[in-house]
Amino acid sequence: MNQFLKDRETQIVTKGKHSAEIACEKKSLAGSVSQRACVFCGSRVVLYPIADALHVIHGPVGCASYTWDIRGALSSGPQLHRLSFTTDLKERDVVFGGEKKLYHALCELIDKHQPKAAFVFSTCIIGVIGDDVEAVCRQVTREKGIDVIPVMSEGFNGTKKDGYKIACGALSKLVGTDDSYKPSKYSINILGDFNLAGELWILAEYYKKLGVELVSCMTGDGRVEQIRRAHKATLNVVQCSGSMVHLAKEMKEKYGIPFMKVSYFGIEDMSDALYEVARFFKDEEMMQNARELVREEISQLLPALQPYRQKLEGKKAAIYVGGAFKAISLVKALRLLGMKTVVVGSQTGNADDYKLLKELCDDGTIIVDDSNPNELSEFVKLTGANLFIGGVKERPIAHKLGLGFCDHNHERKEALAGYVGMMNFAKEVYASVTSPVWKFIK
Amino acid sequence: MILRHTTKEVKERSALTVNPAKTCQPIGAMYAALGVHGCLPHSHGSQGCCSYHRSTLTRHYKEPVMASTSSFTEGSSVFGGQANLLQAIDNIFGIYDPDIIAVHSTCLSETIGDDLGQIVGKAKDDGKIPEGKHVVQASTPSYVGSHVTGYANMVEAFIKYFSFNTNEKIRQVNLLSGWVEPSDMREIKRITEMMNIKSVLFPDTSDVLDTPMTGKYQMYPKGGTTVDEIVSMGNSMKTVAMGEWCSKKAAIMLDNKCKVPFSLTDIPIGLSATDRFVQALSTAGKVSIPDSISEERGRLVDVITDMHQYLYGKRVALWGDPDTLLPLVEFLVDIDMKPVYIVSGTPGKAFEKRMAEVLGEKVPEAKFKNGPQADMFLMHQWIKEEPVDLLIGNTYGKYISRDEGIPFVRMGFPILDRIGHSYFPTVGYSGAIRILEKMLGVLMDRQDATAPEESFELVM
């Protein structure tokens, strides 16, 4: 394996071969073709789906251009989040500071759009030139009477994961600011669903059938008013734990709201998510509703999956995604399709995630943290995978290698959550793996 | 109606850009470097920059795009990024084994004052650059210019590093391609071959970002201008530089350093610009224009005359890079269309002057703006004041197209939601036919879709 960076050896283990724990949460090596992004990216992708808030990027134009509407986080109402606002700093501003520019930009935007709140993202350069973004935000908050929340997400301040934490910090400034709301007895917040391809709407429907009220979703199809009263909910249900667990922990400390980690991908995890909530509320009727829902969905889904399973049985998959929790669900979902996971990795997994992954996977599975294209293509060759699950940068590599591909990051166009999502997943995997095009490769 | 927020009244803005018609320098530097054989672009800054640029280029070309990053941390931003870059150079040659690393800076590394030249010098002194391998560097702060500036800076950096005049003139012409698609690079080479001119095209992303499917993944595909070719550019007879914003800097560098005179011409988009390009080639290569090229031109003119009735007087709004917009707007004027609104986020004084020349008295109502606040919001406001029949520009126009119901032809960078740009050229005479085809396609589709029953016809 001389293809690999020597210093990365501890971040790659093979189940059954290495007994050591995988090293993770390390900074990427300088010079690596890492698939990871920065703090700003982490904050931006988490907060972006709050549709009635203003999102202003303070810095040179690039950070705003690259994040302009790149994530399919759907909104059932306002679309303000899909526009790209930036102070577009120039050399002069870098020398003399950009505070005034930010102040004027914010005032102009708030006057024009009357948003419910504003988030101001601080980029690399702001951290270096030392603009007092917090002071500007305080001033505009005072003058305009809306919350203008600084998001101190300078890119170099860590990894994408640190950006999640900062986004949670920004959200927590809104949470708890509306005390007047009285939710029903059984109420939850969904944390860490971004409503890609309308997934939140599927989940909301399930919870409604259980008799659970959704107070807020952070942050998919998000609304500022809902986030303000999120502390009134009885339970926090956290999906993308990598991004949102910080907020859940904080809300537990501050407001005494317990939280549970769930996943909505695959039959097993989706059903568990519903049962866990019903179990939490200790309500027999709710549990009955959950059982019925699961029974009904599965009785339709399983026979429908059968033809796909027959074709996919024994095929091998390689997974490289952002969050490790998602990878865990994927291993299970693939197993349901008769497929074996031979490579699995994530950009931001922690020790617990990897421990769980290792337990779950078969012997011989390569588990990897913070990988790069060289490694990934080598692993695929080594293991003879037929499918790659990843994000935008992995797709063309997988295709060049002659593999089927399924996007499980924020560029996917199909809802993959819930029972209908499992069906979509099966169809997509099937279509890609069995595509006739693979027979034309020389 | 995503753009419901767009107001009709245009108000002067000083502090705010809304929906930018540009992006920042490093992505241009990355694209230019990918046009060199065996080269790995390297982003000296935080990981996010590199990740965003790779994602955007991947989305546009649907191809693997490789680049490494210095992975800045808080420590690097305080103590400087020298240690990161030195380690990066060591790791990259050790593992990814490129022939060349093309380092570009970011707003972060520029502002903390990293001197790329000095750091690369130190890497050399420390023996971190293996024999026969190279590290080229360009300064590309994100708060100056745009992605086009970054492209120009990286092309210049390569010329500055490699090209050398050994006083042995070669019968060859340098072609600085400008920021065009791999398909366009291929077309430029085809035209030059038709004229029987030996040439070096630089950069050249054909066979890098449009590679065939083989079942193998190659980190360094077969395409790209080779080091030997770039070196030899110093001994060429002449340079034909396409695009003032993209290629002029490098042309001047070649002239100053190697005494290779240049002629600056537009990227050959449309009829007049291709005429001038072919003329420039013929002069530079000291050859006459072959019949085969005149015939291609003739076919283009034939299509224009055949289709004039559908095109004349149509009002068009365009956005993109200055080097693409100038010849494209000229082409529209040539075929009797009315390019009325034009924005380019890329700054540069020459834009307004040249655009005024191109539009001249023919389209006196035209509005055009470049630089700060020349963004898609302004474009939309203009369109709301008085609508147009056609939009031409990169993917970001799709919001306006949908909200206002205007037919839309995608051209420029980035195109994230269609394919074809990598495969079918829009330069040269045959490229111009493709532009016509695309415009006619969307205009006629609209006519078919909206014509009342009694006016709906088979023959158009």
UniProtKB/TrEMBL annotation, chain A:
Alphabetic keyword roster: Nitrogen fixation
Annotated Pfam families: Oxidored_nitro
Recorded metabolic or biological pathway in which this protein acts: Cofactor biosynthesis; Fe-Mo cofactor biosynthesis
A biological-process GO annotation: protein-containing complex assembly
All copies of domain Nitrogenase/oxidoreductase component, residue ranges: 38-432
Positions of transmembrane segments: none
Highest taxon of source: Bacteria
GO MF annotation list: nitrogenase activity
Role, per record: This protein may play a role in the biosynthesis of the prosthetic group of nitrogenase (FeMo cofactor).
Protein name in UniProt: Nitrogenase iron-molybdenum cofactor biosynthesis protein NifE
Taxonomic lineage of the native organism: Bacteria, Pseudomonadati, Bacteroidota, Bacteroidia, Marinilabiliales
Gene: nifE
From TrEMBL, chain B:
Classification via PROSITE patterns: NITROGENASE_1_1 (PS00699)
Cofactor binding comment, as recorded: Binds 1 [8Fe-7S] cluster per heterodimer.
UniProt domain Nitrogenase/oxidoreductase component: residue ranges: 24-443
GO molecular function, one term: ATP binding
Signal peptide: none
This protein's UniProt keywords: ATP-binding, Iron, Iron-sulfur, Metal-binding, Nitrogen fixation, Nucleotide-binding, Oxidoreductase
UniProt cofactor(s): [8Fe-7S] cluster
Annotated transmembrane regions: none
Short name of one Pfam family: Oxidored_nitro
GO cellular component term, pick one: molybdenum-iron nitrogenase complex
Subunit composition and interactions: Tetramer of two alpha and two beta chains. Forms complex with the iron protein (nitrogenase component 2).
Function noted in UniProt: This molybdenum-iron protein is part of the nitrogenase complex that catalyzes the key enzymatic reactions in nitrogen fixation.
Family the UniProt entry places it in: Belongs to the NifD/NifK/NifE/NifN family.
Protein name: Nitrogenase molybdenum-iron protein beta chain
Species classification: Bacteria, Pseudomonadati, Bacteroidota, Bacteroidia, Marinilabiliales
